[in-house]
């Protein structure tokens, strides 16, 4: 049973930083693609950042220059470094991954990020 677990969320003042982690267990396969998404209260879930196996990254415009997505060499974890946080970054952040050789994608349960102004 594949499990995806996010961690690292919390309460931070505007201008501060947080580092989110996404860990995969329950499979011998490595992460192929990884994405971070977020959902603010009363809003739809939105794309934040993406990294593929080759290391190519994409970001939504509102986080460019502030957030950095990365992954470990073992292919079992990924990260979202968030700097210069703003109140509008407040949301539940979700990790989505797919594994090499698998057609399925998996979501974590989310981690809350709250930025106080």
Which bin fits the share of residues in helices? under 10%
| Overall form | globular
Largest sheet: 7 strands, mixed
Count of alpha and pi helical runs: 0
Secondary-structure element string: EEEEEEEEEEE
How much of the sequence lies in strands comes to: over 45%
Q: Are there runs of 5+ residues with pLDDT below 50, and where?
A: none
Tell me the quaternary state: single chain
Q: What does this entry look like structurally?
A:
This protein has 117 residues and is an all-beta fold. Helix content is 0%, strand content 55%. The protein contains no helices and 11 strands. The strands form 2 sheets. Strands 2, 4, 5, 6, 9, 10 and 11 form a 7-stranded mixed beta sheet that branches. The protein has a 4-stranded antiparallel beta sheet with strand order 1-3-8-7, with no helix packed on it. Strand 7 and strand 8 (77-82) form a beta hairpin. The radius of gyration is 14 Å and the shape is globular. The termini are far apart. The relative contact order is 0.33. The mean pLDDT is 96.
